Amino acid sequence: MTTFTNFRFDVDGDGIALATWDTPDRSMNVITPEVMEELAHLVDTVAVDEAIKGCVITSGKDAFSGGADLTMLQGLSAQYAKLAKEKGEEEAMSFFYEESRKLSLLYRRLETCGKPFAAAVHGVCLGGAFELALACHFRVLSDADATRVGLPEIKVGLFPGAGGTQRVARLMQTGDALQMLFKGEQIRSLMARNMGLAHAVAPRDQIVQAAKDWIKQGGSAVASWDQKGFKLPSNKVYSAAGMQIWPAANAIYRRETQDNYPAAYAILEAVYQGLQLPMDLALKVESRWFAKILRSKEAAAMIRTLFISMQELNKGARRPKDVPQTKLKKVGVVGAGFMGASVAYVTANAGFEVVLVDRDVEAAEKGKAHSHKLMSDQIMKGRAKTADRDELLARITASADYADLYDCDLVIEAVFEDPKVKAEVVQKVEAVIRLDCIFASNTSTLPISGLAKNSKNPVQFIGIHFFSPVEKMMLVEVIMGKETGDKALATALDYVRAIKKTPIVVNDSRGFFANRCVLAYILEGHLMFVEGVPPAMIENAGKQAGMPVGPLSLNDEVGVDLGLKILKATKAQLGDAAIVPEQEQLLARLVEQEGRQGRKNRKGFYDYPEAGPKRLWPGLTALQPKHLEAEFLDMQELKRRLLVTQALEAARTVEEGVITDPREADVGSILGFGFAPFTGGALSYIDFMGAKNFVALCKELQAKHGDRFAPPRILHEMAASGETFYGRAKDKKAA
Amino acid sequence: MPDAYIYDAVRTPRGRGKPDGSLHEVPAVDLAVTTLDAVRKRNDLDPMLVEDVVLGCVDPVGEAGGDIARAAALKAGFGKEVPGVQINRFCASGLDAVNLAAAQVMSGMKDLTIGGGVESMSRIGMGASGGAWPVDPGIAIANYFLPQGISADLIATKYGFSRDDVDAYAVESQKRAAKAWDDGRFKNSVVPVKDINGLTILAKDEHMRPGTDMQSLGQLKAAFVQMGEMGGFDAVAIAAHPDVEYVNHVHHAGNSSGIVDGASAVLLGSKEGGEKAGLKPRARIKGFASIGSDLALMLTGPIDVSELALRKAGMTKDDIDLFEINEAFSAVVLRYIQALDLDPAKVNVNGGAIAMGHPLGATGAMILGTVLDELERSGKQTALITLCVAAGMGTAAIIERV
């Protein structure tokens, strides 16, 4: 009998083979070149051995498989670059195309080998692994809660290139198929069956039998799309039905991506072209697009930041190695306002005991009620049970007595942003906590080192900066004061990991990392406004550049009055030169004369009517000293200004030592303020453009729009040396 | 270069473009035959003198497919020697057919030609011929494909036309069309569609709603709201015109061109060609042009193309007595008047497609005939005819009475 390393292969008395995928020494099955080689051999074995009727593929692990090894794909790109240098573009491309479609051809070989294949899936089955299942003639999923199928490639700038686009588009209505491919969501078993992605759902211990039964009962080895008379679920592309689908699909693509995501575009192309062709040619077209997208800088950037770096940071890349795992049990939260209440919720949700303290019991209870509301929302959505809510609430103790914090391992303060108030809280807390308790401040504006001066124990004093809304925002900035020690850092990182958020470690500075970039973005919007750019155009430039909201809208969310307050505070502390007077005048006019504070009072740059969507305040144009004609404005430049100003600020944080690891700036910029994800983040934006080009662009913008675009020294150096942020970080590590 | 003269222009009445429309029973080719036959009989024309029949048709499939111009010429008994060609520039096809027929004369290669158009929207259906432009992602996305209604709403939004503005224009179109019919201003051009026994099937435009007022239009809901929001098209409109915050949807069936059936034909020729056939010229083609323009606005091509045609004819807008711009949507006409700074009293004086309907491929030649009649009736000299065109184009022609 044939033997494999990655599969167990057994043929039963009925002549049905069972291939159990179980790669040794790995917790998860992953598609690697070796797995592909063995699978090819396995398909050939089943095809030629007359004693074998058909084959069931299943997994020997708790999950089916997470899909292809992304580093394998990255390696392919490196080989391409090498070949292109040595043998020229065309030969390299030809190699790359053939290599990158190997998995697709392998699956097609499985699908057309003449013997029926069935997939018996339990646990996650994603990406290339689900494409394997889709190539099988029959799919049965376990009914376990852990079972999820899906094609999440789009989330890292890729798309399913091993037949996924073609098979999904032949299994369901075109509109549904496109939506599934665009979203890349993980789908539960019953939903998958309803969508037509699976044939059956069964208890985990019966899936293999169900798959075998299907083969025994004469399951066809010819996929429906390879049978004569096959009809596409949404009829032909060029049909009345197609006219209902494609124009809207093209428009929705632009609405959802602003045409910034080549992988999403490639999905449209592959499905549109593919549905007009027989399967083999359709797969070829898909492969052509896959080879193109795999070489795109968007894919490279997104894989690096959103997959590799994020995973590394989540696993504690920045955690001091020699500090033993902290044993957190009880967390204190001081200040039960909006932020504190939310921090209490996410902490209790992670299973910690929480003491929520405010100046009186009513205030503390009100903060606790926030958790009740959030859990009730979850229950309404079917994502939690009443018992879950009761248990979570039981973990939160609302109190007005600081003494209740005595046995906490970590205390996070989220009181009013006033140095005096904070100082008082530090002293009150330190009077009751154990000596080894870590004290964290959730400040967004006050330097940590300054606050730490109030502490008896600055080594154990650290910043843990949450973003609002805490329940949704995945980023946490961990801020190192001048004296903050390793234990405090390790504790903070262990805590952030426990609440399933992604940490970045930032050295102390006014605004830390994220808010500095955000303020630069908002400032640029304000200055465009003062220049006379139509307000809608400023907002659309932000959105088209890839930001989640325009700068004026963002300012409304943060609070126009808060913006003005920060400006005034900055001016008071750092002098007139530290702020832009036009911005101050604009905000003062809005807040002080027009009473427009932002979303909070339903009046900011926008009006927020009770019913209907927000609309730009018609009075805005009267606040603009001049008005520029939209037709004569360069939209490209507006978009660039909005991204460049943020990237410049990120570069400055590197120069100042606030950011020490480019991965953190990139991940932080995407998770923290939604910096155009297709760029890979604020520093990748510069790296992929090349420092030289970026500096040239900055100088051009500086000449036109002022010294805020002056590139800092670090960028000049990088432009001269040809370095990248990531290259520098690697060198530094090696040194 | 020889001059191209207009010797005659005819059209069918326009039937409601639905199964309950009077012309629904009439095949498209028979609509075209009606006009070709009229040209022949009214002018006592030897059809063998016609050297080409150019017909516009926007959805040339099924019975309208496979070169309907040749089929119509044959069925009209023009003889096997008379060739025909069908062309398509969407809504301007009928005028482009006239321009092409005129161009053949002006090139000196032909002496007598017919240009016109035909569309049976009730029988074939708008969009039946498909096409890559809205569907193929490689074309649609980069070029900001929008359904025309969204483009019209975008024009209204961008250039500040309110719902009241566009409705008021529609009311005026209905009024002018009703009066023109009442005064018999179309009687020279409209030829009834008859059955095989000579019984009249339709003699008058049946899409008109003469009693239309602001109140009745006010009750209609904007037609493209859902398409704009759910279909993603508002976002495309804004992406192309980022100075627009949101699209103000103002168009509906009452202020947009009607879907109708109909055909048209214009007899053109050189001086010699006319003399040989014993014809008296009514007007001369002074110039014509086609142009591509903004894709998302799509329907502002008439502005650019009118300026180009005027330049080519060595004229200015002040040299034009009457403007005839197809009423695809109210905002198209309002923006045209605004951009060229025209006197509204000179534009579409006898109403247009909002009242009477827009049989896509036929309209261009129809409105050329309408304005020629009006020049003669009012003793004026010059007119400019223009249509907005899908995929962001525009076509225009300038005529002058002789």
UniProtKB/TrEMBL annotation, chain A:
It comes from the Bacteria. GO terms for molecular function: enoyl-CoA hydratase activity; long-chain (3S)-3-hydroxyacyl-CoA dehydrogenase (NAD+) activity; NAD+ binding. Pfam families: 3HCDH, 3HCDH_N, ECH_1. Residues 511-608 form the 3-hydroxyacyl-CoA dehydrogenase C-terminal domain. It catalyses: a (3S)-3-hydroxyacyl-CoA + NAD(+) = a 3-oxoacyl-CoA + NADH + H(+). InterPro entries: 3-OHacyl-CoA_DH_CS (IPR006180), 3-OHacyl-CoA_DH_NAD-bd (IPR006176), 3HC_DH_C (IPR006108), 6-PGluconate_DH-like_C_sf (IPR008927), ClpP/crotonase-like_dom_sf (IPR029045), Enoyl-CoA_hydra/iso (IPR001753), FA_oxidation_alpha_subunit (IPR050136), NAD(P)-bd_dom_sf (IPR036291). One of its GO terms (biological process) is fatty acid beta-oxidation. SUPFAM superfamilies: 6-phosphogluconate dehydrogenase C-terminal domain-like, ClpP/crotonase, NAD(P)-binding Rossmann-fold domains. Keywords: Fatty acid metabolism, Lipid degradation, Lipid metabolism, Lyase, Multifunctional enzyme, NAD, Oxidoreductase. Gene3D superfamilies: 1.10.1040.50, 2-enoyl-CoA Hydratase, Chain A, domain 1 (3.90.226.10), NAD(P)-binding Rossmann-like Domain (3.40.50.720). Residues 330-508 form the 3-hydroxyacyl-CoA dehydrogenase NAD binding domain. Pathway: Lipid metabolism; fatty acid beta-oxidation. Its EC number is 4.2.1.17. In the N-terminal section; belongs to the enoyl-CoA hydratase/isomerase family. In the central section; belongs to the 3-hydroxyacyl-CoA dehydrogenase family. This is enoyl-CoA hydratase. It comes from Microvirga aerophila. The gene is fadB.
From TrEMBL, chain B:
Residues 5-230 form the Thiolase N-terminal domain. GO terms for molecular function: acetyl-CoA C-acyltransferase activity. The active site is at C91 (acyl-thioester intermediate), H358 (proton acceptor), C388 (proton acceptor). InterPro entries: Thiolase, Thiolase-like, Thiolase_acyl_enz_int_AS, Thiolase_AS, Thiolase_C, Thiolase_CS, Thiolase_N. SUPFAM superfamilies: Thiolase-like (SSF53901). Residues 279-401 form the Thiolase C-terminal domain. NCBIfam families: AcCoA-C-Actrans (TIGR01930), PRK08242.1 (NF006090). Belongs to the thiolase-like superfamily. Thiolase family. This is Acetyl-CoA acetyltransferase. It comes from Microvirga aerophila.
